[in-house]
Amino acid sequence: MRILSLLGSPRANGTTHTMARLIAGGLSGGGPVEEIALQEKHLRPCRGCQSCAAAPHVCPLARTDDAEAVFAAIAAADVVLWTSPVYFYGLPAQAKALVDRSQRIWAGVEAGRPAGKGPVVLAALAAARPRGEQLFTGSLLGLKYFFASFGAQLADTRTLRGLSCPEDLLSRPDLCADLERWGRDWAVRLAEGRP
C-alpha cells in the first residue's frame, strides 16, 4: 500500500507535522510513508488565466514549479493523509496554492475526461483557535473538491482545536494515542478492503 503524507503547514516540524507522524505511524505500521512538505516546494499561485479550460487542459505554469510532481504523487498513492493548520478559517497559502492549481485537472474532468480511481483520503486539520462554529468548514469543503479532481473523496477527517504548537499536542497523551489509533483503524479497514 502506497501512503502519501501531504504536509500543508508553512512551518517545518509544527503541530500538524507532529499529527501526521502519529497518524502515519499507525496507518503504515512502521512501513514506508512518502512525505511531501508543501513548505519545501515551489508552488506558484494560479493566475486565473483560464488557459487550462481548453483541451489539453495544461497549466502554463506546469514547468515552472513543483505542482505537477505533487499531483503525480497524489495520483500514484493508494492513501493520502493530508494534514494542515487552519489560518483565518482557511488553508495556509502554500496549501491553497496547490488546491487552486488543480483547476487544470478539474477542467479536464468537467470536459469529460475520467478522473480515474483516486486514493483513499484522510484529512486532519488543527487550529490554535479553541472555538468557532465554522472553523474547519471552508478548508474541508476546499479539500473535498480538490481531491474530487483526482476521483477521490474525503474518507474521514479529524479536526482539532486549541493547538498552537507541537507541545500543546504532545502534552496530551490521550490525543496522541487517539491519532495513532485512528491511523491503525484505517490500516485495518484498508487491509480488509473496506474503505
From TrEMBL:
Residue ranges of every copy of the NADPH-dependent FMN reductase-like domain listed in the record: 1-126
Enzyme class, broadest EC rank: oxidoreductase
A GO molecular-function descriptor: oxidoreductase activity
Classification via Pfam families: FMN_red
Record-linked InterPro entries: Flavoprotein-like_sf, FMN_Rdtase-like_dom, ISF_SsuE-like
Keywords: Flavoprotein, FMN, Oxidoreductase
EC number assigned by the record: 1.7.-.-
SUPFAM superfamilies: Flavoproteins
Protein name per the record: Flavin reductase
